[in-house]
Design a protein that fits this description.
This protein has about 180 residues and is an alpha/beta fold. The protein has five helices and seven strands. Strand 6, helix 4 and strand 7 form a beta-alpha-beta unit. Helix 1 packs across helix 2 and helix 4 crosses helix 5.
Length: about 180
């Protein structure tokens, strides 16, 4: 795990299981219809319980680049923020990915949350290159912490494997 202070707040990267995080919110890499079958989404519902899927079903559709929030069921986190990132090849992926992160951070602030943990949104089944995802997520988080009045004091990236971590570390070291 590594961390840096930005504007008195903490930016952190690590390898780990996001379903085990006790941050106020964890971010789910969601699809537009919030159907949580596989990947990060499936793991979150399996561990947190079907209430997460039930609340997601009530929300329904979430546009790419946006986010929605549900309770976290029996997870350690209080909330799950469902961020819909882009699929590689659909066009304008970097902008959509940035918007998904900003939408998540806005929800965290709206709910007066202090800490949030993100996965590498869109880098799994959605096929976005891990180096691009790392660049966009780190850059967006740094810009947010530098320029936004927010209740969020900790933004962390909880990454599934060492390969993804290396891409995030490369961007993290540029800060």
């Amino acid at each position: 795990m590594e961390e840096k202070k930005i504007n008195g707040r903490t930016l952190r990267i690590m390898v780990g299981d996001i379903t085990e995080k006790d941050t106020d919110a964890i971010v789910n890499a969601a699809n537009n219809y919030l159907k949580h079958g596989g990947g990060v989404a499936g793991a979150i519902v399996r561990k947190g319980g079907k209430i997460i899927q039930e609340e997601s079903d009530r929300i329904g559709f979430v546009p790419t680049g946006s986010a929605a929030i549900t309770s976290a069921g029996s997870l350690k986190a209080k909330y799950v923020i469902h961020a819909v990132g882009p699929k590689w090849g659909e066009g304008d992926e970097e902008k959509k990915l940035k918007n998904a992160v900003l939408s998540s951070l806005k929800l965290a602030n709206d709910y007066k949350l202090k800490s949030i943990s993100f996965p590498a949104i869109s880098s799994g089944i959605y096929g976005c290159p891990k180096n691009m995802v790392a660049k966009v997520l780190i850059k967006t988080a740094v810009e947010y912490l530098k320029s936004t009045e927010t209740t969020v004091e900790v933004i962390e990236f909880c990454l599934f494997d060492e390969e993804t971590y290396r891409y995030f570390k490369e961007e993290f070291d540029k800060i």
